[in-house]
């Protein structure tokens, strides 16, 4: 058994001070952490600092390659450094890291002039979530053949776990594509685009939507009936092509099969 | 995001497949096509458990394909066994589900901490060798082994600093963890060389004092070289290059004491092409082939205490 003194030790444990000094170089290295001679060794402690901070910055860069390309790597790493200090990982599942990054970008004063970064980061995070989402079958259009037109309009669909729709005031699809290389022409920041992320198999699909399509599919994903969602769109834009938008949803595997969603 | 606890994975009826006393390789997704297409002659593959804690998609599809062909070893890097706080129950549940599904031949973790309060530092951080830490670590290993219903291996660390409050030697500390928890040991020969260089002791003496009869698996990796505050060599456990000759020599020394053991090549950064990595595994296999004497019977104290 441990002694009383030892049992008291966790309250005055070393992890808190060690951890705080890892993320903030202005916090002093706790006493008693030395080289083998018993001498203070900031360079040695610096190996841990470097592993942690550089490792997390690399993780951010690989999770948000489009944002990094748009901002430029140096700028991105400066922003990521700020994010890491205020939002360190809360789980050993590093593939989940960065959920708060879009919000952080939106509130980061130096980036007020680049509001489009928020939507790109949302889409990048959704892309990663889709990559790791559960394997489920997707709705096959043939399944809808058994419904009358009235019944079809009353249908509500359940999104596949990989599905996400981004409705943006910015060219979110064109900017998302920066991860594959910065286009010479840049991006037309006046454009508004929607973006649909799905995963009908193992590969994640990223599909360009116009704004009306994005709002419509977003309403379906939120559980509105086909008829209600279409009615809202048609009230605003009599030229809205519901069939085309819905066909995109089916061909990309946006929903779970109806037969599998009864009772959900 | 969804985790393996919400997975809808296909029914896998794997039998637990023992890890052979051969060279294995840390699995990298960029090598999977090469491995499966060539039917690579490798004893086993090892994965970091955390990389497969998502619910589905490509990572599990790839791991399933590899698992169908090869024995698998599951190596955790985020359990924070050495931490001051209790084991993260969600993380343990995910680890358990992963181990139940893939039925790895070996399960291992590190003598290190990575989480404090709810911050995960994403690194293997050093533990002071005190009796208090020992009690905590034994309790954590016990908790994980009970949750998994099987013995786990604990790996010796590579370290860059020492703690003034340490009262145990690392060798005695590792031996005592194993003795009290019934865990086995994973012996990282590169970590021995890195720590011995960094702290100025003999890696051979360390190896000869180590409880090698409890070792069930070996890790081999490359390291980077830097200098410390006083201008002395400071080795960094970078896993970014070939295993160095000194470490191969120490590996031979270990095998001369233990007989052939499953031996993993770890190469996690600046990952090379598959043939380069395979050549490292073949080098380990060649050395293993010269140590074909009957391997030491592994003491499984965990089985005895259940």
Query: Overall pLDDT of chain B, averaged?
Result: 94
Q: Between the first and last Cα atoms of chain A, what is the distance in angstroms?
A: 52 Å
Give the SSE string of chain B: EHEHEHEEEHEEHEHHEEEHEHH
The residue fraction in helices of chain A comes out at 40-55%
**Rg of chain B computed from alpha carbons, rounded to a whole number of angstroms:** 18 Å
Low-confidence stretches of chain B: 292-299
Q: First CA to last CA of chain B: what distance?
A: 36 Å
- The geometry of chain B reads as globular
Number of H/I helices of chain B: 10
- Rounded mean pLDDT score of chain A: 93
**Count of DSSP E strands of chain A?**
4
The major beta sheet of chain A can be summarized as: 3 strands, antiparallel
Work out the oligomeric state of the chains in this entry.
Answer: heterodimer
Q: Main sheet of chain A: which strands, in order across?
A: 2-3-4
- The beta-strand count of chain B equals 13
User: Biggest sheet of chain B, open or closed, and with what strands and sense?
Assistant: 8 strands, parallel, barrel
Compute the CA-based radius of gyration of chain A.
24 Å
| Structural class label of chain A | mainly alpha
């Amino acid at each position: 058994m441990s002694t009383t003194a030892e049992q008291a030790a966790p309250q005055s444990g070393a992890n808190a001070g060690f951890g705080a000094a890892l993320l903030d170089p202005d916090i002093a290295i706790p006493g008693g952490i030395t080289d083998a001679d018993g001498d203070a060794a900031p360079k040695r402690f610096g190996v841990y600092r470097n592993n942690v901070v550089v490792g997390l910055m690399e993780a951010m860069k690989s999770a948000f390659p489009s944002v990094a390309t748009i901002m430029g790597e140096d700028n991105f790493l400066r922003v990521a450094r700020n994010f890491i200090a205020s939002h360190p990982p809360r789980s050993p599942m590093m593939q989940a890291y960065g959920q708060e990054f879009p919000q952080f970008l939106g509130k980061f004063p130096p980036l007020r002039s680049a509001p489009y970064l928020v939507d790109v980061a949302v889409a990048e995070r959704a892309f990663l979530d889709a990559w790791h989402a559960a394997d489920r079958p997707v709705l096959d259009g043939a399944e809808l053949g058994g419904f009358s037109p009235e019944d079809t309009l009353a249908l509500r669909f359940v999104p596949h776990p990989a599905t996400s729709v981004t409705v943006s005031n910015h060219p979110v699809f064109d900017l998302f594509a920066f991860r594959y290389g910065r286009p010479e022409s840049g991006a037309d920041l006046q454009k508004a685009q929607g973006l649909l992320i799905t995963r009908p198999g193992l590969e994640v699909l990223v599909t360009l939507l116009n704004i009306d399509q994005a709002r419509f599919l977003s309403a379906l994903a939120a559980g509105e009936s086909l008829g209600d969602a279409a009615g809202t769109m048609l009230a605003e834009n009599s030229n809205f092509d519901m069939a085309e938008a819905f066909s995109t949803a089916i061909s990309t595997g946006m929903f779970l099969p109806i037969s599998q969603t009864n009772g959900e | 995001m969804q985790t393996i606890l919400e997975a809808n994975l296909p029914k896998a009826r794997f039998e637990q497949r023992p890890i052979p006393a051969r060279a294995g390789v840390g699995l990298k997704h960029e090598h999977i096509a090469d491995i499966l297409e060539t039917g690579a002659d490798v004893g086993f593959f090892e994965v970091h458990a955390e990389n497969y804690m998502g619910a589905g998609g490509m990572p599990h599809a790839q791991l399933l394909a590899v698992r169908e062909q090869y024995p698998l070893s599951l190596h955790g890097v985020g359990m924070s066994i050495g931490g001051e706080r209790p084991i993260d129950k969600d993380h343990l549940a995910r680890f358990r589900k992963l181990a139940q599904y893939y039925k790895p031949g070996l399960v291992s973790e590190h003598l290190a901490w990575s989480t404090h309060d709810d911050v995960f530092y994403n690194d293997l951080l050093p533990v002071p060798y005190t009796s208090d830490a020992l009690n905590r670590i034994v309790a954590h290993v016990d908790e994980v082994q009970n949750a998994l219903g099987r013995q786990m291996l604990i790996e010796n660390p590579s370290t860059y600093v020492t703690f003034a409050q340490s009262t145990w030697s690392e060798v005695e500390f590792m031996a005592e963890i194993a003795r009290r928890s019934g865990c086995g040991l994973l012996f990282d020969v590169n970590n021995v060389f890195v720590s011995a260089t960094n702290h100025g002791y003999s890696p051979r003496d360390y190896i000869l004092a180590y409880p090698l009869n409890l070792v069930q698996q070996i890790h081999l990796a490359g390291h980077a070289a830097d200098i410390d505050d006083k201008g002395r060599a400071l080795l960094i456990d970078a896993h970014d290059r070939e295993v160095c000759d000194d470490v191969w020599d120490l590996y031979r020394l270990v095998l001369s004491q233990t007989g052939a053991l499953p031996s993993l090549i770890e190469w996690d950064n600046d990952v090379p092409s598959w043939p380069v990595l395979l050549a490292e595994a073949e080098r380990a296999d060649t050395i293993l082939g010269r140590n074909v004497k009957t391997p030491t019977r592994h003491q499984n104290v965990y089985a005895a205490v259940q």
